[in-house]
Write a structure and sequence with these properties.
This protein is an alpha+beta fold. It has nine helices and 33 strands.
Length: about 625
């Protein structure tokens, strides 16, 4: 205790005294629990030691942090984090009869949800979750659960039998003396949610027998109808008499009711930044065809040669092109005034992100849908046009980046959260099951990390955090299925590629195909290496080149970005020229020639200068997003 200075006693519990102390080393306020051990029974000593053991395992922003424990004057001293905002019970009591806003209720609830998920992940039951054990920070915005004195660490298949906990929060199975698992904590979570919504306990009675009868009958007053039906239904499901009918924490977190609050909590606190409407069409004078809007661009990026003068029509905010399988066409957008800034191509699906953070999906129409007329340059009968749509139910979620694998898609939000949807057959969704999911759902096990990048292979996913931790899940080449969110490397320092000349300057863009890779340096030079079986390296190099070699025909042309397909490569010049080379069969490269020769420009059917914002290749398909060059400044 010489490291601490006692300030005052702030509480007395079943096992001892709680002191507020000042840690002399950094002048930080801490809580020290003083638990006398000399006169304790064996069971009481075990409970005290258990709290230390539990606290050591837990590390979460919504769980009271453990610092250390030591013996002093025949007492066990446990030093832990101080929460100056008091308890949630005190916060509710001060409200009197003034009900909380639903947004505030969910703000507190999802933090408790995250904390309990962390606890259960470590196979720990809290067993005394109640508003008195839920603490607040000084601003009463951050919630932290504490008091793990009667927690129990579970083995893989064991169940706890002892009836413990505050009577008002115990579950029906405890009242009957039945074995229980995490579902009893979920019952207590329902009691806490009910208390937040009604400012009173769900189950109260004058004596214990009467309380037990109330709990076992599952009767409680309904919460106010001022709250949404979804919130009222959530309370009912958490307080189901049958444990199996109570939803697991993962299902609760995936409900639309909780997703917005969870996303908002991830990086900061406050109101959710709702997505703004798509940028409207320009209201100023339309730009004449061929006008550069104050920018001189190379004729290579102006599309087909201009014919007779056409009426002045405002160009769309962006266009998205797809080629592959004989097609070379612009994709339809859900709205004319939509600006696409990033695209991703998978084997079967295509996706894009708008400037305002909405996700667009392009899907093949139902079987039997007819196609339009044959397009110039197509070498096969045209397939039906793709159908575009905005992702539904995305209000309040801003997408920053999208990546596509085979039959599944991963999104990264502006708050560093990864969401996945699509086929779960290979475990690529990372939700702990092989079930398909139609709507983006948070990858829960990564909620404790701020992610900065996500990439999809055919049947696996890689994700990188701000702390340079690398996670992978899905199916490997050998068919194995690693556990979702398996941390494969905590990369304190990544080893750069040592091959010259890629070790001489920073890289602007890199991509990989089935058997080759490409990179663009800061000076705009494009290099390739790997298989050259179909000329995808753009050089006359050997069939396989392990040494990066500069693409022939692009010397002196500054390249900005590059993308690799299965046997071809696409490069974007600094002036938004589009070049492709490699296997040109089936119209994959936007041209009909089958040679595997040097880079050639790709002509897009655009009558105005444009800037390429994103390019993506997958197998035999390429997706390209462009926006016209105008005088209008681009929104931040």
């Amino acid at each position: 205790m010489e490291k601490y200075e006692r300030i005052r006693v702030v509480g007395r519990g079943a096992f001892g005294i709680v002191h507020l102390c000042l840690r002399k080393a950094d002048q930080k306020l801490v809580i020290i629990k003083q638990i006398p051990v000399e006169q304790m029974t064996k069971e009481e000593r075990q409970a005290a030691q258990n709290e230390c053991q539990v606290l050591k395992l837990l590390n979460h922003p919504n769980v009271i942090e453990y610092y250390e424990n030591f013996l002093e004057d025949k007492a066990l001293m446990i030093a832990m984090e101080y929460a100056p905002g008091g308890t949630l019970a005190e916060f509710i009591q001060k409200r009197c009869n003034s009900l909380l806003e639903e947004e505030t209720i969910l703000h507190f609830f999802v933090q408790i949800l995250l904390a309990l998920h962390h606890v259960h992940t470590h196979l720990i039951l809290h067993r005394d979750l109640k508003t008195q054990n839920i603490l607040l920070d000084k601003h009463r915005m951050v919630v932290k659960i504490g008091d793990f004195g009667i927690s129990k660490i579970l083995s893989s298949k064991s169940k706890a039998y002892t009836v413990v906990g505050t009577p008002c929060y115990i579950s029906p199975e405890l009242c009957e003396g039945k074995p229980y698992n995490q579902k009893s904590d979920i019952w207590a979570l329902g009691c806490v949610l009910y208390e937040l919504a009604s400012l009173k306990r769900a189950f109260e009675a004058a004596n214990l027998p009467a309380l037990v009868l109330k709990i076992m009958s599952g009767t409680f007053a309904p919460i106010s109808d001022r709250y949404s039906p979804e919130l009222r239904q959530l309370v009912l499901s958490l307080l189901s008499l049958e444990p199996a009918q109570r939803p697991p924490l993962s299902h609760i977190m995936a409900q639309p009711l909780c997703i917005r609050a969870l996303l908002n909590l991830h990086t900061d606190l406050g109101s959710v930044r709702m997505r703004r409407a798509e940028k409207p069409l320009a209201t100023g004078p339309p730009m004449a065809p061929g006008s550069t809007g104050g920018r001189t661009t190379s004729g290579r990026c102006r599309g087909v040669p201009r014919g007779p003068a056409r009426p002045a029509i405002p160009p769309p905010l962006s266009s998205v092109y797809v080629w592959g399988g004989g097609l070379s066409v612009p994709l339809r957008l859900p709205m004319l005034n939509t600006e696409v800034v990033q695209v991703a191509a998978g084997r079967t699906q295509k996706a894009g992100v708008t400037r305002s953070g909405r996700l667009i999906l392009w899907e093949a129409p139902p079987l039997g849908a007819g196609g339009g007329p044959l397009l110039p340059g197509a070498v096969e009968q045209q397939q039906p046009q793709f159908i575009s749509r905005f992702l539904e139910g995305q209000s309040g979620v801003t997408i920053k980046h999208v990546a596509c694998g085979d039959l599944f898609t991963a999104c990264l939000t502006d708050r560093g959260i990864i969401m996945t949807f699509g086929s779960g057959s290979n475990g690529c969704l990372g939700h702990g099951s092989l079930n398909d999911i139609s709507q983006p759902t948070i990858v829960e096990a990564l909620l404790g990390y701020e992610m900065v990048q996500v990439a999809c292979g055919a049947s696996h996913v890689l994700a990188l955090s701000t702390e340079r931790e690398l996670f992978a899940w899905g199916r490997g080449d050998g068919g194995e299925e690693p556990a979702p969110h398996q941390q494969v490397e905590e990369a304190l320092s990544f080893t750069p590629l040592g091959s010259a000349p890629l070790d001489r300057e920073p890289l602007l863009s890199v991509d990989l195909g089935t058997a080759h890779s490409a990179a663009v340096t800061a000076s705009g030079d494009c290099y390739t290496f790997g298989s050259n079986q179909h000329g995808q390296l753009g050089t006359i190099a050997r069939r396989v080149s392990r040494v990066p070699c500069q693409v022939q025909g692009l010397q002196g042309i500054k390249i900005a970005m590059v993308a690799c397909g299965d046997a071809f490569t696409v490069a974007i010049g600094a002036e938004s020229e589009v070049y492709s080379w490699g296997k040109g069969a089936r119209g994959r490269l936007g041209r009909r020639d089958e040679d595997a020769g040097l880079p050639r420009p790709v002509q897009l059917d655009e009558m105005h200068p444009y800037t390429v914002t994103s390019v993506s290749c997958c197998h035999g398909n390429t997706l390209l997003a462009i926006r016209p060059v105008t005088d209008e400044p681009v929104p931040p």
